[in-house]
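#struct-pred
JK: can someone run the complex with iron/sulfur cluster? inputs below
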Amino acid sequence: MSVFARLEPRLPSVSKPIQYVGGELNSTVKDWDCAPEGETVRWALMYPDAYEVGLPNQGVQILYEVLNERDWIVAERTYSVWPDMEKVMREGDEQGPIPQFTVDAHRPVRDFDVFGLSFSTELGYTNMLNALDLAGIPMHAVDRGDEDPIVLAGGHAAFNPEPIADFLDAAVLGDGEEVVLAISEVVREWKAEGRHGGRDELLRRLAVTGNIYVPKFYDVAYAEDGSIEAVVPNRPGIPFRVRKHTLMDLDAWPYPAKPLVPLAETVHERFSVEIFRGCTRGCRFCQAGMITRPVRERSIETIGNMVENGIRKSGFEEVGLLSLSSADHTEIAEVAKGLADRYEGSNVSLSLPSTRVDAFNISLANEFSRNGRRSGLTFAPEGGSERMRKVINKMVTEEDLIRTVATAYSHGWRQVKLYFMVGLPTETDEDVLQIADLARKVIQKGREVAGRNDIRCTVSIGGFVPKPHTPFQWAAQLDHETTDDRLKKLRDTVRDDKKYGRAIGFRYHDGKPGTIEGLLSRGDRRVGAVIEQVWRDGGRFDGWSEHFSYDRWADSAATALEGTGVDLAWYTTREREYDEVLPWDHLDSGLDKDWLWADWEDAIDPSSDVEVEDCRWTPCYDCGVCPTMDTDIQIGPTGRQLLPLSVV
Ligand code: SF4
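RT: done, structure tokens with the ligand placed:
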């Protein structure tokens, strides 16, 4: 079944051929028939981007391992092929085109039972269509037969899969570890019974679990003004709302335990351990924080064991402690000290990818740099002015920020990066220009405390995109022209500053990709035609600036949405009303819609002084998640410590 013999002679003609070869340390190749009597369940897992971005993805690595640990499941990986490889595959050989293949055993993706895609960004949608086409799987779910795989989406972007609903058989909301096994069981049973009832019956069995969304079992009705009137199940037994899945015991699932070691250069080359999942800080723009509630910590012992095991199995020399805000782990000081003690004098270095200004402290930073380079520090105040930070519920005062950064400079750091967003609700030019002011004050203070002039502050700016399941899901997105205008004013202000301007780095992207991300994030099923049109016009790798074309998206939107009464602006720059049915209302993240609405109103009310605190340390404020999902916050402190490793 392997297509490698057909692929191999062509590899010298494509860029970075090593990415298509497979055989990475800790990868798995199993017999195609590893279970008796045709009961093997086979998954092709895809991160829909190039190998260099896709291989390090934690979600795919975890599911790959969880599935392959079962002796009746085969799981292999596939990534998006670069355009040069796509051309080679489409040209094919005497047997015809070379189909989308897995990198593990080079088996055609179409031969698997489930084709599972993990989306962390909506800009991967055209890559999904390309993979389906290359695989020879009918693009539209309605055209698929019993022999085609179930096309399944997961990841954060799957919390509103409506724009790709026509191309999907199913979507899963939330944590994947347990649900992929539950899906596999359903598929196994269906196969063992001789595929009774065909594809429709398999999808029905998945849908009735209440955890798996099957778009074709729901009808969408539109009102005359173009808004959605209702989304309702179209057959008996299908639930009105599909619930997200929450993994409650992270210690019982210590994955990845055998991290994949890439063959080609990738965006991250380190072993990452997720130290907790979820975040209840309540930043109003943050979809990841909202949809992953509540907070569930991994214990210090499990973190220690995972780090030790992961390093031993992979040979990586850098360990990243991952989460949405890692310094918030209740025992982060003990974790950092324990690991720094263990690996003192070795080649292993630790990193903490995300740090909140208010959770940073210098002893923590020192532990992390004890064994390695003193890398730059990154903080994300997100809003340039105090007023904006109040709107987004990220209450970091200017004083806090300057004090924190000054501490870092006075302890030898020379480089600090500050991350902001532009285009937030109620924002004015003045709010954005205050970013320059803040950077200036940071440099001024830094020079003062460090007693030297060679310190730098890099300001990095991203465009705000309103996301489903957040209090800002009703917000009007700023149009890209105004976004670019604000960014230009800010850049000019920094450049014109003779005294501090040269010490301030300025990084930003123009506003156009954000507009398209906005269309895809809050779109409904009608947007599927736009995505398909873009793909037919050659759209691929839309997350890469060199491949992204705004004009292609805008032209496709104009054509594909013609006659629907809605357009690109309707999806992006329009504020929504309370009673509008949102495309994802039938997908249950646990958040109470009325709580989200009240939080949205507090955000934009200039007279409101409501600050949503973190429910880890204050009483529950009824966001809805815990009672709806039957979950609870799981945090320490446990009072335990990491023991030194003894050599046997
Ligand atoms: S329900 Fe309460 S405790 Fe649970 S995440 Fe929401 S605010 Fe926090």
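RT: quick notes.
DSSP finds 21 helices and 19 strands in the chain.
The first helix runs from residue 4 to 7.
JK: thanks, will look after standup
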